[in-house]
Design brief:
2 copies of one chain form a homodimer.
Chain A: E1 10-12, E2 17-19, H1 24-27, E3 38-40, H2 41-48, E4 51-53, E5 56-61, E6 66-70, E7 76-80, E8 84-86, E9 91-92, H3 109-126, H4 133-139, E10 141-145, H5 149-164, H6 166-169, E11 179-183, H7 195-207, E12 210-213, E13 216-221, E14 225-230, E15 241-245, E16 248-251, E17 255-256, H8 259-268, E18 278-280, E19 294-296, E20 301-303, H9 312-319, H10 329-342, H11 347-350, H12 353-360, H13 370-383, H14 391-410, H15 425-430, E21 441-444, E22 449-452, E23 458-460, H16 465-475, H17 480-496
Parallel strand pairs in A: 1-4, 8-19, 10-11, 10-16, 11-12, 18-20
Antiparallel strand pairs in A: 2-3, 5-6, 6-7, 9-17, 13-14, 14-15, 21-22, 22-23
Helix pairs in contact in A: 3-4, 9-10
Membrane topology (chains A, B): Peripheral membrane protein
Protein name (chains A, B): EF-hand domain-containing protein
Keywords (chains A, B): Calcium, FAD, Flavoprotein, NAD, Oxidoreductase, Transit peptide
């Protein structure tokens, strides 16, 4: 929604399409077409009179405000900018596990295509007369490393394929011969979701004969098996290693920096402390860039929440209007509102000021003293976790940034960056911080979906939850085009079943 | 349409889908989705209770009636058969031209995907600021070797893309900068079509700024240019070599045997004389297989028409009922009907017996003597060209064979092949020969289509011919599924334009 009259837009990307990754697991067994999740960047550019360069960003020249990009012939190109938005996404985390080249992944279209081909290959090979029973068992073992949304949804799609299409397409393979295993290092799968959701999913999977192996870590991946073991504990510091043969192994865990963000982080030195993503302030400006002209959003970035404890004296003195050294009920209520306005992420902790007041007035004096206030702020600081690396966050950040940039453009005669007056720092400061409103977490778990809309409002396995899940993603699509294509795909699947062609 | 109760069917193929190749050119610029041209073999097998093996046929053991197939691990498998149908298609002909690895082809899904990626790559690279004007000119030169239906339709799709989508997607490239050239060794493109059709297409292309270079041959292909020259003539036996740089080069010419058919041809020795395809009799039985249990159809086979001249004395004496040494009008009419019944391919030459009689009664005696009859039969033999390697022929052959095999099964108690009584030769002889009825030739030439329905009934560039073209192919699809998908694709293109994503 960036104003095309106010900005001259250039998009630099090594792929010329935008991929809606949350639905990628659905393409692996043919429920969705890959093309339906893809929006050509040039279609978007056409609407915005934007320029598109199929190049890969290599380096940032902060001095001259240029991005250095490389084309696929290896030639570099310097693109000057007034404002730069970094949205390069992330890579899979390896955790130092050897042999990940034997795993399939689900980050790109190529990954999805390879996964689909591999799944079909396993079934095709397993139904050949030349295949021994032992090989067949191995081929029909699907191992998923990581019990996050991607792993769970891939398991669910596999399960759907097994139930709906396997008997018709591969009559020589019975359901019992297929083994699907999820290896998860945490206590539960879907552990960023509400606990009830994750245990519902575990039960649903165990009924569907999907093995959920929690508290285990993958140690190594070989060509046709993984080595895994229970997480070391005090009682058992060297747990026994186990072997699980596979026909295909899916690696879905973790988020790591791309070479570009890694390089930028090093360039920015001490201002960047996070190992997994670029740190930004709550206005999405990359920390350490002096003129505030570089923004980052999506999986490649994380918002640093300021430590409230550091400003404790200032806040307390401002709030203590009658200067009696403690905060009474009204003073605290005012302070809460002021803090929420200033630090939107505190809303979930401070919105119910009355309750909070009673909770932290430990000595029951009817007022909060500085020590009690310190405990409260520390608790908030601790609970303010980083935002999840989801499409939902990235989409809201994109909208926030476009709106802000439009406002900045509308309120300045000429672009401050262009005028060489040190960028837009003072302007930007005047505008609102980014505030994430969590609309709920969704996951498709095979035949049904689970949803966690926050505040304990959960949806689990209701009839129709599958369509709710589809509906939410459907409404999030970039364009009417992808929305229509998705609707067509789902209709096709309903009418014709999945497509078992392998190419 | 093979009877699933009469036969136990096994399908052996290295790919697990059937590809409708005539529409493949449409996928190269995103008008059609590749998946829409594809029917999973397992869907067809499900309807027929057939078994599918994803293996590649290697060799035929005629003695033991076994097909030896190899899986993708290189292990071989022997599949016994009572009747074998060979439909392995063909390969591109190289004509000994060096450097064809630099060309794109259009035989398989992978070919089409690579072509699509290459086309988009050329445009993406051409619009980069790092690209020099000379490179841009090279990148935007598309060379098509071969002016048959595939080459022409690919040129037409490229043209559509240039007209409909280029300005919106690639604003930095103008239409004039794009050069499309077709190199054709013959006098005309589409030379298996009616002359009027091919000259209409040439005019249409020249108006569309597509260069048609006829009477030229490609001598060599390098990484980024072709070397070509005029066909040598008596006056100019060593024509000058010319160079044409390209961003992509499409090789569409010729049909050659696959390794499997080549091997089988050698095995069958003297019975097989054709260098490009397996020879069959007019009942589609592969020549040289003694028990007639091996059939071949489609591009991998060609029907040997018996030389009528060889039977001249027999036919003449049978027809000359009054034994006066010449054929009068009635005798000739009877003979014509008998010959048509026996050799269906003579129908187009003999159906108008009256005209033919007058034409070949050179001396005007009102009767045809043996010498005049010899001229007639030689003319027919010469004009009986082999059937074109088209989907239309293959589809009719498939229907013919299924119907025949059903009849054979219905009229035998137990399968003759199973009983070890020497196969079904006598049974098969009693049934009709294959008769090809040409329904017309179609080609899409950009914005419109050309059609040649035989007997001079031509359709050229009518408004709506494009939809006629689509309609005919649409009705030829294997299943309701592919038909629906095609309709959706065409609707999508109409609504949303083509998809420029490259993956």
């Amino acid at each position: 929604s960036l104003d095309k009259d106010a900005y001259d837009i250039t998009v630099i990307s090594p792929t010329n399409y935008f991929l809606f990754t949350p639905l990628l697991p659905s393409t692996t067994v043919g429920t969705l077409e890959m093309r339906s999740l893809v929006e050509p960047i040039r279609s978007v550019c056409r609407r915005k009179n934007a320029r598109f360069l199929q190049c890969e960003a290599q380096e940032l020249d902060l001095e001259n405000k240029e991005i250095i990009a490389k084309d696929d012939q290896g030639r570099t190109y310097h693109q000057p900018y007034d404002r730069l938005i970094i949205a390069v996404g992330s890579q899979s985390m390896t955790f130092g596990v050897p042999g990940l080249e034997h795993c399939n992944k689900l980050k790109t279209i190529t990954d999805a295509r390879e996964t689909r081909a591999r799944v079909i290959d396993c079934f095709e090979r397993a139904s050949l007369p030349t295949t021994t029973p032992k090989e067949k068992e191995k081929l029909l073992s699907f191992v998923i490393c990581g019990g996050g949304p991607t792993g769970v949804e891939f398991a669910a799609e596999l399960y759907d394929f097994l139930v709906d299409d396997l008997p018709g397409y591969f009559p020589s393979i019975s359901r019992d011969e297929v083994q699907v295993s999820i290896i998860q290092s945490g206590d539960h799968i879907l552990n960023t979701y509400d606990k009830e959701i994750s245990s519902y999913t575990e039960q649903h999977f165990s009924r569907s004969h999907i093995n959920v192996i929690t508290n285990h870590r993958v140690r190594a991946v070989a060509e046709d098996h993984i080595v895994y073991a229970r997480k070391p504990t005090k009682d058992d510091p060297n747990p026994e290693e186990k072997i699980l043969p596979f026909g295909m192994c899916m690696w879905t865990t973790g988020i790591a920096m791309t070479p570009f963000t890694k390089h930028l982080k090093e360039q920015l030195g001490g201002a960047q402390k996070n190992a997994r993503a670029l740190e930004t302030d709550s206005r999405l400006r990359v920390a350490g860039v002096p003129d505030g002209s570089v923004y980052a959003l999506g999986d490649c970035s994380t918002i640093m929440n300021p430590k409230l404890v550091r400003g404790i004296v200032e806040y307390f003195e401002e709030a203590d209007t009658n200067h009696d050294g403690v905060l009474d009920h009204d003073e605290f209520a005012h302070l809460s509102q002021a803090l929420i306005r200033r630090f939107p992420h505190t809303e979930m902790h401070l919105s119910k000021a009355g309750e909070i007041f009673r909770m932290y007035d430990k000595d029951g004096t009817g007022s909060i003293d500085l020590d009690e206030f310190r405990v409260l702020l520390s608790d908030i600081d601790q609970r303010s976790t980083t935002l999840p690396a989801t499409a939902q966050v990235a989409a809201q950040q994109g909208k926030y940034l476009a709106k802000k940039l439009n406002t900045l453009a509308a309120h300045s005669l000429g672009m401050p960056g262009n005028a060489g007056d040190g960028g837009s720092v003072p302007y930007d400061e005047a505008l609102a911080r980014f505030h994430y409103s969590h609309l709920g977490s969704l996951a498709y778990v095979g035949g049904t979906a689970v949803a966690d809309f926050g505040d304990g409002f959960l949806v689990k396995g209701l009839f129709g939850a599958k369509y709710l899940w589809r509906g939410v993603y459907w409404s999030e699509q970039v364009s009417f085009r992808t929305r229509a294509l998705l609707a067509l795909d789902w209709t096709k699947e309903l009418l014709f079943g999945r497509d078992s062609s392998r190419f």
